[in-house]
Amino acid sequence: MTGPRPVLDVRRVAKVYGEGEATVHALRGVSLVVERGDYVAIMGSSGSGKSTLMNIVGCLDVPSTGTYLLDGVDVSRLNDRQLALVRNRRIGFVFQSFNLIPRTSAVANVELPLAYAGVQAKQRRQRALAALELVGLGGRANHGPNQLSGGQQQRVAVARALVTEPALILADEPTGNLDSKSTTDILSVFDELNAAGRTIVLITHEPEVGARARRLIKLFDGQISSDVRQRPIGVAPALADQPTIQLERLR
Amino acid sequence: MSFLEILRFAVRGVTANKLRSALTMLGVLIGVGAVILLVAVGNGSAQQIADRIAALGTNTLTVQSTSRGGSSNTAITVQTAEALQDPVLAPDVKSVSPVVSTSATITYQGTDHSVQQFVGTYPSYFTASNTPVGTGAAFTGDDLAQGRRVVLIGTTVAEELFAGTDPIGQQVTVSGALFTVVGVLDEKSATSGFQDANDVAVAPLTAVQQALTGYGAVSSVIVEAASTDKVDDVQAQIATILDQRLKVSATSGGNSSTPYRIQNASQLLETQTETANTFTVLLGAVAGISLLVGGIGITNIMLVTVTERTREIGIRKALGAPRRAILTQFLAEATMLSLIGGGLGVAAALIGSQFSIVGIKPVIVPSSIALALGVSVAIGLFFGSVPASRAAGLRPIDALRYE
């Protein structure tokens, strides 16, 4: 079931912050290959470099040394415009702190990546509403971020990440700020997305979140300390027959 | 990503913080409005002066005495004025009207009115000074010779003293002397600064001298040239006569040492226009400062807005916004603030210019509108673009981490 090219191919990536005495080695040569359709959880204590790795993978940051191939393309060779396109079309990023745009309704937040992708307003509204429906927030489309609870805000953020139907969904501690009920909601959304063939990489602190992933990677001090396959890549039979409006369009 | 879409984002950005946007626009509004309106006021006053001088007539010259001491041999008297009407020495002089002017209180049936200019002169004064008679008739040479106490009054005087009644034929008291009103002068549109041109009374010179001023020097002499292009000749002719009469030695030369001054309307026009221009420049400079303050307001708001929204810029970049889309959005916001503010300022100035300000009807200078709007938009664009381009150039992660 693996694709012809790995979605992620990280090769000896290192990241150094600061200079001289204050130098911090956030990553010390991490190599990682993630195949299409995989569900990877990255765990590690704080300061282990997991967020740095995630930012590099999400094209938000650049590595100090090493190369990173996304769908076989070396990201460091892309210019600003191409990078914007990659972030827009290939990657859906879910932040720990939600990062919704303030004073802007949920549906407008979800529409945003579609707007930058140049989708027509009418179609955009439709797809944004469908994505909100998928995360169970169909009824709160017109609420602003300050009118939503943390769990609801995070679900809006998830809807925003998946509305462009990216092949790769990255989540930086998506459940870090949420209660257990919201955590379960978010994780089941991820399960469904993965079942539909999306590649998911998430960072977490919580072992039970890590346990749901197919593959668990532990980072320690900027290096991979363990890499365990928990379940094989492939569509879980129980979830394969649960199409939704949104998921039908997935590759 | 269409431009329209970015504009929509910009509108949302402007309306997200309504009070702040409104205050910024207010700053621009005041700046732009003040520039346009004050320049219009300066321009209006300049035009008013020009109109008034044109109304005086361009073929008249005014001779005034410059000696302050009142020494009898340099003062201009009626005899001096009469001497100017000399067909040999001054062939181009059409008429000469010596003028004595004083302020006096006119009383009619217990009503007092203090007239600013009570003028005693010759009948030729009316045409020379462009003061036509409205109703009634001007006094004649005979009235002058007989020293008859007749008077023509300006419209302001007529309204003050004879509200509702016909003034002609009525008797008024001027400083104890009885005068008969024989006419009312036409209303003059040009008000001379703080003076009302219609607050005037004109009587025969002899009568005024006898009743009010006494037989001394005259205030001025109005000399009418035969035609407009003879004005310079007439000036030279009467200068020669005056030099003779007042015993000015030709060698002492220099206009400053002569005991008289000859002014013609075009000279007057020139000096007055210069004064008015200085006035306009001063007003414009004051208004320019307020425009600058408005511009600093935009700059300040754009700096705050962009800095405060650096995180939002990071989010937008993480979602795939190209650098250009972000730059365009913030530039559109800045332009919108300054354009709307400037537009309202232009509207306010246009409305304000309908009213007269300190007695001056403002006349809008179109270039001041373009300049004021242009400056405000340019300031908004420039100071909006600097922080926006800095933020748009950040790596998404740096923008996201910005606190």
TrEMBL record, chain A:
<keyword id="KW-0067">ATP-binding</keyword>
<dbReference type="InterPro" id="IPR003439">
    <property type="entry name" value="ABC_transporter-like_ATP-bd"/>
</dbReference>
<dbReference type="InterPro" id="IPR017871">
    <property type="entry name" value="ABC_transporter-like_CS"/>
</dbReference>
<dbReference type="GO" id="GO:0016887">
    <property type="term" value="F:ATP hydrolysis activity"/>
</dbReference>
<dbReference type="InterPro" id="IPR003593">
    <property type="entry name" value="AAA+_ATPase"/>
</dbReference>
<dbReference type="InterPro" id="IPR027417">
    <property type="entry name" value="P-loop_NTPase"/>
</dbReference>
<dbReference type="GO" id="GO:0005524">
    <property type="term" value="F:ATP binding"/>
</dbReference>
<keyword id="KW-0547">Nucleotide-binding</keyword>
<dbReference type="GO" id="GO:0022857">
    <property type="term" value="F:transmembrane transporter activity"/>
</dbReference>
<protein>
    <submittedName>
        <fullName>ABC transporter</fullName>
    </submittedName>
</protein>
<dbReference type="GO" id="GO:0098796">
    <property type="term" value="C:membrane protein complex"/>
</dbReference>
<dbReference type="Pfam" id="PF00005">
    <property type="entry name" value="ABC_tran"/>
</dbReference>
<dbReference type="InterPro" id="IPR015854">
    <property type="entry name" value="ABC_transpr_LolD-like"/>
</dbReference>
<dbReference type="GO" id="GO:0005886">
    <property type="term" value="C:plasma membrane"/>
</dbReference>
<dbReference type="InterPro" id="IPR017911">
    <property type="entry name" value="MacB-like_ATP-bd"/>
</dbReference>
<keyword id="KW-0813">Transport</keyword>
UniProtKB/TrEMBL annotation, chain B:
<dbReference type="InterPro" id="IPR050250">
    <property type="entry name" value="Macrolide_Exporter_MacB"/>
</dbReference>
<dbReference type="InterPro" id="IPR003838">
    <property type="entry name" value="ABC3_permease_C"/>
</dbReference>
<dbReference type="Pfam" id="PF12704">
    <property type="entry name" value="MacB_PCD"/>
</dbReference>
<dbReference type="InterPro" id="IPR025857">
    <property type="entry name" value="MacB_PCD"/>
</dbReference>
<keyword id="KW-1133">Transmembrane helix</keyword>
<feature type="domain" description="ABC3 transporter permease C-terminal">
    <location>
        <begin position="285"/>
        <end position="394"/>
    </location>
</feature>
<keyword id="KW-0812">Transmembrane</keyword>
<dbReference type="Pfam" id="PF02687">
    <property type="entry name" value="FtsX"/>
</dbReference>
<comment type="similarity">
    <text>Belongs to the ABC-4 integral membrane protein family.</text>
</comment>
<protein>
    <submittedName>
        <fullName>Macrolide ABC transporter permease</fullName>
    </submittedName>
</protein>
<feature type="domain" description="MacB-like periplasmic core">
    <location>
        <begin position="21"/>
        <end position="240"/>
    </location>
</feature>
<dbReference type="GO" id="GO:0005886">
    <property type="term" value="C:plasma membrane"/>
</dbReference>
<keyword id="KW-0472">Membrane</keyword>
<dbReference type="GO" id="GO:0022857">
    <property type="term" value="F:transmembrane transporter activity"/>
</dbReference>
<keyword id="KW-1003">Cell membrane</keyword>
